[in-house]
Design brief:
By secondary structure, this protein is of the alpha+beta class. The protein folds into two domains: 132 residues, Galactose-binding domain-like (Jelly Rolls); 179 residues, Rossmann fold, CATH 3.40.50. Helix content is 19%, strand content 30%. Strands 1, 2, 5, 7, 8, 10 and 12 form a seven-stranded antiparallel beta sheet that branches. A five-stranded antiparallel beta sheet has the order 3-4-11-6-9, with no helix packed on it. Strand 3 and strand 4 form a beta hairpin. The radius of gyration is 19 Å and the shape is globular. The model has no long low-confidence stretch (mean pLDDT 97). Pfam families: Lipase_GDSL_2. This is Lysophospholipase.
């Protein structure tokens, strides 16, 4: 269970903590906190309040986005089919709140259509008090595709069956009390573009959408799990592009410890291993991990638990955490 500590607000919305890849921007002439990344979170403690209210600006979507709302470690999934949602509370004691952007769909135009998650406000009832909190550990970044984002973890229905809150990155972060910073998009790779208009990884690590530059961060560690979606590209093409990408990651996160997680289906394992060794980057082999999946590719709940435990074992064995 994650150990939380008090912290400072880090956004235009007072008294809460935005964890992950958020940016402050204006939309429809309104200041908002905005993200295109599943796994982005909002954390706070609330006291003396009979409710808290979350106000969003909803994009025009066929299938609503999904939030995971964790109140005192009791989780519920909420489809964002209305802009304002109220959650009732017992005002006689304080509550720990964790909100995760856990589901969207491949049809959401997150890159050019402003169809990410837009948070307008979070407020308590009269006399209620909010306090920002965060995990008591370092910031750790995860760069990847739909597996790292947390797509299709709970089942085969888009958005509501996604699980950015319970996938391997979320679970590993909770094991070590890390501040989980997700940089991952569905279907994307080193060469392949993702869904929702998202470009390949060399572009998306530097931008939140087509014109918003990503915030600068200084993570303690960075985990890279890419290549699964580059299956159709020959090794002779993939390898130099992967080399170039990893050099860029090294330069961008020059003070961070880097780990390359081999694609769980072993796609481009030879090139990925060779490049990682050449650049002296730690590589985490994943062969024979026996990961349960929804569809032969995407880990399900049990598969996510397996991956998190295997990664935890690797880090403990190498005395890294």
């Amino acid at each position: 269970m994650t150990d939380y500590v008090n912290t400072l607000s880090n956004s235009s919305i007072a008294n809460v903590y935005f964890m992950g890849r958020w940016v402050q921007r204006r939309f429809q002439d309104t200041p908002i906190m905005y993200t295109t990344n599943l796994g982005a979170e909002i954390l706070f403690q609330i006291e003396d309040s009979t409710y808290f209210e979350l106000q969003t600006i909803l994009p025009d979507l066929e299938t609503p986005q999904t939030l995971s709302i964790d109140i005192d470690h009791q989780l519920q999934l909420v489809s964002l089919d209305k802009a304002t949602i109220r959650f009732e509370l017992n005002h006689s004691h304080s509550h720990l709140i964790r909100i995760v952007f856990t589901g969207n769909t491949d049809a959401d135009d997150v890159w050019q259509g402003n169809q990410g998650l837009a948070i307008k406000s979070i407020r308590a009832s009269k006399n209620g008090v909010l306090h920002p909190i965060k995990p008591n550990g370092p910031l750790v970044a995860f760069i990847g595709d739909s597996i790292t984002a947390g797509c299709w973890v709970r089942g085969s229905h888009p958005s509501i069956d996604y699980g950015a809150d319970i996938n391997y990155a979320a679970r590993l972060s909770q094991i070590f009390n890390w501040e989980d910073y997700r940089i991952a998009y569905s279907a994307a790779g080193i060469l392949r573009y993702g869904t929702g208009g998202v470009p390949a990884a060399p572009r998306f690590i530097n931008y939140v959408d087509f014109n918003i530059t990503a915030p600068a961060i200084n993570p303690s560690m960075v985990f890279i799990n890419l290549g699964t979606n580059d299956k159709k590209f020959e090794e002779s093409l993939f390898q130099p592009f992967f080399m170039q990408f990893m050099r860029e990651v090294q330069a961008k996160f020059s003070s961070s410890k880097l780990f390359v997680i081999v694609p769980f289906d072993q796609t481009h394992v030879e090139s990925i291993t060779s490049v990682s060794k050449t650049l002296d980057i730690s590589i985490i082999p994943t062969k024979d991990w026996n990961i349960e999946t929804i569809d032969g590719v995407h880990p399900d709940v049990n598969g996510s638990i397996t991956i998190a435990q295997k990664l935890s074992d690797f880090l403990v064995h190498h005395q890294i955490s």
